[in-house]
Amino acid sequence: YSAPDRLFKIIFVGNSSVGKTSFLQRFCEDHFSAGTSATVGIDYCVKTVPMDNSQVALQLWDTAGQERYRSITKQFFRKADGVIVMYDITAKDTFTAVKQWLVSIEEATGENIPVLLLGNKTDNEKEREVPYGLGEHLAKEYSLIFYECSACSGHNTREPVLHLARILKEQEDKVKEKTVQLQQDSKKKSCCARL
Ligand code: GDP
């Protein structure tokens, strides 16, 4: 085990009761407790995951989905490296709300940060209201990473977050490479200037 050499801040949004808190509990502590009450305020958990030859720390921020907390959420978006938008596959209105969440993210961050779209509660297939194809289509339209999952059964609770983390790491690696390249270029220039 080695200390994490980078940390990414990921914000979790979506309407109330889609399962954000349950998903985080599953991801960070690997357990599910039915009947968790709707989130009030904001809480976070940190999970360190191995990636390539290093350790990446993921700081996952839970937010309340209620409209009255939107302003808090907007503030939090500002320093986010990535965002997870969750809906409930058994509640169509939570899927309809995804577009509004995407608008809020874009307004607050002003740039293209990686977004993961998650359709939760696949264990409750018989009450499904949102077909898989609809989620997939929306994700394609807005260039989002897309998975369906179940915080309850544990299905797809790790893979989607690791996928997002990998994209964040690759993005950061590219920026680092560019910086090194620029430094080398400017060193060469100053060296030539002296000659
Ligand atoms: P939040 O308001 O988005 O944080 O949602 P919660 O995590 O508080 O979950 C709301 C309700 O949905 C709770 O009763 C959970 O037990 C339930 N729930 C969360 N995830 C799942 C899931 O994957 N499957 C099922 N069947 N219920 C879930």
UniProtKB/TrEMBL annotation:
Record has GTP-binding as a keyword: yes
Keywords from the UniProt entry: GTP-binding, Lipoprotein, Nucleotide-binding
Gene3D superfamilies, per the entry: P-loop containing nucleotide triphosphate hydrolases (3.40.50.300)
CDD domains: Rab
InterPro entries according to UniProt: P-loop_NTPase, Rab, Small_GTP-bd, Small_GTPase
Domain of life: Eukaryota
Keyword Cell membrane included in the entry's annotation: no
One Pfam family matching this protein: Ras
An example Gene Ontology molecular-function term: GTPase activity
NCBIfam families, per the entry: small_GTP
Entry protein name: RAB44, member RAS oncogene family
